[in-house]
Design brief:
103 residues, alpha+beta, Antibiotic biosynthesis monooxygenase
Length: 103
């Protein structure tokens, strides 16, 4: 598994950004090979964090380019700025149903 985390530090309304991105980003992700899951959280003080999980780096990179283009074209009024991005292979995965994995 491969995870991409984007941290936006100057978001006027994380809830509005998440609501507006849900359909556009959601559609891009649903059509992306290797996509597993997507999360958005409001960390307070104008900080929004998006987490995407894919099967592998190649799938993440392909979807990432499409998502960045969507955000720049469709959400410019939210003035999200350039996000900090952290990405890498998931080394440990523990789920509530008892499933787990260690790389």
């Amino acid at each position: 598994m491969y995870m991409v985390i984007r941290k936006y530090s100057r978001v006027r309304s994380v809830a509005d950004a998440a609501r507006r991105a849900k359909s556009g980003v959601g559609e891009i992700l649903r059509q992306s090979p290797g996509f597993r899951s997507y999360y958005v959280l409001d960390a307070g003080d104008g900080i929004g964090i998006a987490v995407m999980i894919f099967d592998d780096r190649e799938s993440a990179n392909a979807a990432n380019a499409k998502i960045l283009a969507f955000v720049q074209a469709s959400l410019p009024d939210l003035e999200l700025g350039v996000p900090e991005i952290a990405a890498g292979e998931v080394l440990v995965n523990i789920e509530a149903n008892g499933a787990s994995g260690i790389k």
